[in-house]
Write a structure and sequence with these properties.
heterodimer; A: MetI-like fold; 13 helices; 2 strands; B: mainly alpha; 15 helices; 69% helix; elongated; disordered N terminus
Amino acid sequence: MFQFIIRRTVGALVTLILIGAATFFLFVAAPSDYASLACGKDCSPARLEDIRQALGLNLPIHQQFWDFMSGIVMGRDFPTGHCSAPCLGQSFYSGDMVWSTIMDRFPTTLTLTVGGAVVFVIVGIGAGMIAAYRRGTMVDKVATSVSMVLSSFQIYVLGPLVLLIFVYSTGWMDNPAYHPITDDPWKWFTGLLLPVLVMSTIFTAQYTRMARSSMIEQLAEEHVRTARAKGMSNRYVFFRYAWRGSMIPIVTVLGIDISSMLGGAVVTELTFSLQGIGRLAVDGAVHKDLPLTMGVMLFGAFFILIVNILTDIAYAYIDPRVRLS
Amino acid sequence: MTSPVALDPELESNAEPVKAEQKLEGRSPGQLMWQRFKRDRTGVVCAVVVILYFVIALAAPLLTKISGTDPYTLYGQDPTYADKPILDQFGLPLGYFGGVSGSHWFGVEPQYGRDLFAMLVYGMRTSLFMALGVTVLLMATGVVIGLIGGYFGGRTDYWIGRVTDFFLSFPQQLFFIAFMPVVTAFFVDPREATPTYFRALAMLIVLWLLGWMGMARLVRSTVLSLREREFVEAAKVSGASPWRIVRKEILPNVVTPILVQFTYSLPSTILTIAFLSFAGVGFVEPTPDWGRLFAAAANYTEQDPAFLFFPGLALVIFVLAFNLLGDSVRDAFDPKSGR
């Protein structure tokens, strides 16, 4: 198991370096003029030259690349000041260091994604398993059709609708906002409750359907029949035998879905006017603020790789065959 | 939806012997699929709904001619329409439900007074046909890469696999957003405004570059199992060239999973395009686009919730119909996959 984790971590590091290289060459070394983006709309030639100097764009490309990559590990110096350890550069638009901006915004996004994942895993898989357990009954039919309809609601349709019902017309909830958990856990919880629920709705519905069909498939397997033949109780067979097998395809998809949760976070943050890193990526893209966009991308990739390693470990735990390959 | 498979003569020659023996007339898998699909009432209804959406999108200019509106005119601000006021002094639509009336069927946009019906049908036109183009491109790329990897195997397959894995490790939607300005900056001077057709092209490139992997994987794994089958071996022994084997023996057998995958990826591409426009990096004012309507609706919800109603309902019905259609198509092709 330990070896497995090490192997996956090394693989992830290599991927991260490759992503760093890919983004660097696309963003900085692309044929378009990086410096003129930094300079903005009305830009005098003298100022353009200054910026080129300051960003080190006169240096050979491999030197620039080395500066960028080593900056992430060791920090680097800009003429405007020092940029400490994980240095992702300095925003063109606001002039702030990208890393500290990301760190300011990250708790919101983390709450959204982790909260959303917890909700959809528990509610989605739970509902799916109940539906499979009661297959063919009213419970099953309701769960299946409700999840079918809900999975067609997009965040940007459901979000304003929920806001309208719970905030604007009834005033039952305050406008969603992020409060640090360290300040006031209750406010933290209620502040992001609506966004988290809305964001996880589609996933919850999808997981209900997936868990149900996966469970039904497992119940038809031979080892389940053997267990039944041995006289084990229905509940024991269901939760001990079929459950484990049915989780394998779900965990596989889970790893992919957590990465689309980041995309969901973008929409959720825009819909509920929250200040997270999804918002940051959009702002970066709209203002053509390349260091910011690049920083958010690398950070996102890093986040996803960690999640992927965690899902792989979960996978290896559930399915022993994975560890050997 | 007529099945291209059923009309494909190649498929009939490759009909699986088992199925041909069961029925005396010897139907091709395509014909069998079509028969099963016709019996599935939900599937047929959903197919009709989906086709209707595409017809509406295609006939958008005709429909707006009937309604007498267009998606660009600011009916609330244009002095030509001053005799028929549609907005109150706060810029909110007069009348009920967002200003629904005989001339503005779905009401009007607050502030500008643009016609929602025209904006919606034109927006659907933009989104649906763009998505259709992107999806076809994705399918083609995925099939080619998957075929090469799966058929040739060995070292080629290994490297294609690594590249696929690499692309899959991106946080996709975040990268869609991030790559938009980069791709645009490749071609357009950042100090100038980006023309609309160019935004469309940039979206196409971004979605294409970051979206082909799923299809490639699917095709690869299907081809990998087909490669070992007897009929491929027979073709090899009888001296067929690799190109002929791929074209005549393998490709017809991959059509089924490709078609199933297509019905799943088209709606997801539509939603991705809508997502980009919603986030403000896709289509921008004044191009009518489905996703952009939601971005506007999110701002108006508090004062004028009706503006969200029509585009939202249209989208929910569309996605629901497409999802159900996808399941039906899958079931028709593979009756074993019980729901």
